[in-house]
Amino acid sequence: MKKMNPVVHFEIPYKNNKRTARFYQEAFGWQMQILGKEMGDYILATTSESDDLGPKKRGIINGGFFPKKPDWPGQYPSVVISVDDIKDAMKKITDSGGKVHGEPMEIPSIGRYVAFTDTEGNRLSLLQSLPGKQTKQK
To answer: Which of 20, 36, 91, 101 meets the CB 3.0–4.6 Å disulfide criterion with 14?
Structure first.
């Protein structure tokens, strides 16, 4: 059977980090961690009991929020797909008719990340985790 690449993370844009964190914490009980400028003002969202490898229950993902910026395209909720080799996945995307947006960026202590658009205009992302940081699949 051919290996499938799982959805491991979601991302949602925000305008106000404190308001966003408060809303999701109060409405859904999520643990929200507002990161600083060095991490792009990202907000981590833990949606279920997790450890350093991710959620402890099968089929559950955590996510994050990024600041809306006037010069960024496609700022909509999206999903992040885990891949073993980000360069290989980027080639498969372009070969299949999608468009990769730039080169992978390094996320400290997480891995390499790049956004892409599928053939229907949907924005999604790829993540190649650092060794030992792969989300466990139970």
So the answer is: 20
Yes or no: say if 136 and 59 are a contact pair by the CB < 8 Å rule: no
**Amino acid identity, position 70:** P
7-129: CATH number: 3.10.180.10
Q: What is the pTM of this model?
A: 0.77
Report the C-alpha gap between 29 and 27 in whole angstroms.
6
Predicted pLDDT of residue 2: 83
Amino acid 97 reads G
Q: What distance in Å separates the CA atoms of residue 34 and residue 39, rounded to the nearest whole number? A: 10
Three-class DSSP category at 58: coil
In the numeric block, the tokens 């907000």 are attached to 43
